[in-house]
Amino acid sequence: MMLSRSNWTILGLAVLVAAAGGWMQHASERARVPAGVQVAERGDIAPDLTLSDVDGKPHRLSEYRGRRVLLNFWATWCGPCLQEMPALVKAQANVGEKGAIVVGIAMDDPERVRAFLAGHPLNYPVLLGRIDSPSTSLLLGNVGELLPYSVLLDENGRVLASRRGALEMSQLQQWLKPAAL
Question: How far is CA 91 from CA 30, 65, 100, 133, 177, in A?
Fold first, then answer.
């Protein structure tokens, strides 16, 4: 079937409008980034942030170098975050001591996080993210600051991938296997 000239014109305009809409959405998300704030993107070395665990002990992200790291941003009030946790626990249990590591980063009130973890212990470390601007999740690429959000770092701390929304088990297994991506 051959398209008429007017149909080609309509098709061309639709493609242009779609491209412009995508660019505008990307630009509007970028507009939320405060001036002077560097947001890690795929291929960048993640910032070596220092975050406290639930006991107040500080940890640097560089402590995990030498291993693939899955940073999983969550909150106690986030339903999809809580639904994803059993898969993260199962995946962490299957990678072994020398393999990849899941690091939960709670974007929530520390007292709520402590109370939640007291009733729902996890087999991976949980650190407390900075909620005020610029938030920890924003610095690691979560421009829309939606939860759950995950970032995969290679053994050198370089961002390999990120995902907004819950990870599917197949993607989680792919990310945590030794030669992923």
Answer: 33, 19, 10, 31, 10
Whether residue 86 is preceded by a cis peptide bond, meaning omega within 30 degrees of 0, is no
The Cα–Cα gap between 120 and 68 comes to: 25
Reading the block at residue 132, the tokens are 């005020």
Rounded distance between C-alpha atoms, residue 175 and residue 153, angstroms:
9
CA pair distance 136, 105, nearest whole angstrom? 9
Long-range contacts of 126-133 (CB under 8 A, 24+ apart): 126/53, 126/54, 127/51, 127/52, 127/53, 127/59, 127/103, 128/51, 128/52, 128/53, 128/54, 129/51, 129/73, 129/105, 130/51, 131/107, 133/34
CA 29 – CA 165 distance, rounded (Å) = 16
Is the pTM for the entire model greater than 0.70? yes
Asked if 44 and 162 count as a contact pair (C-beta separation under 8 A), the reply is: no
CA 115 to chain centre: 23
At 83-104, the pLDDT tens digits run 999 999 998 988 877 788 999 9
Contact indicator for 30, 132 with CB cutoff of 8 Å: no
pLDDT at 33 over 80: no
